[in-house]
Amino acid sequence: SDQLEYLWESSPNIISALDRDSIIVILENSDDFVVVVTNPEFGCVSDPVIISVLVNHVTAEVSADTTTIVVTKSTTLTVDGNFDANAKILWSTGQTTETITVSPVTTTTYCVTITDEDGCTAEDCIEILVLDPACDETDIFIPNAFSPHDNNNVNDVFRPRGKYLETVEIIIYDRWGKQLFQEKGDTQVNWDGTHKGAYLGPDAFVYVVKVVCQNQKIFEKAGNVTIIR
Description:
By secondary structure, the protein is mainly beta. Helix content is 0%, strand content 47%. The protein folds into 3 domains: 49 residues, no CATH class; 71 residues, Immunoglobulins (Immunoglobulin-like), CATH 2.60.40; 88 residues, Immunoglobulin-like. A hairpin with a 5-residue loop joins strand 10 and strand 11.
């Protein structure tokens, strides 16, 4: 009302006039402000009114082991920040722990909200990019020649290469169908151009390659590879 007079108790945090119905404050920490209201027309003076202003110091920051995964794989999300052990954690998944493991099948944004005992909140989000590679010749390269044991450490072994491979199996036959080599394992499986410890070639050989990609898709191919000396 225009008839009311206001007087705020002086505070170094108040940067506006003290005789207004509202004040402007700058705060680093929570504080209380006191105002007395007077109605000169009737001579009424209110009891001191205390207004508490709560400063939110809660922060949240989400990190991930990796922000890009292949479908069927998982990544671990962790929330850090300025909050104590009594704060409540709530992920968009419904989980309530500081660390969670997720396995999205499509690109997904995960958010977490931290709420402290005073009701102050902070939120952060992170996007996990999910890839679903074709697991075909667009993703996998199989050489048609290699030059083992030529002392230049370049193109010394035969193996498929690709970004999203998980396991590899290689079988090698000579031109008459005799099996010379077979091995199955991780992405480093390779043939070094030998049979029973002896160097082979130069010649052409038949390979059968089977690859399981990280999304569990399977790629198989047979073809020829030439040893160059």
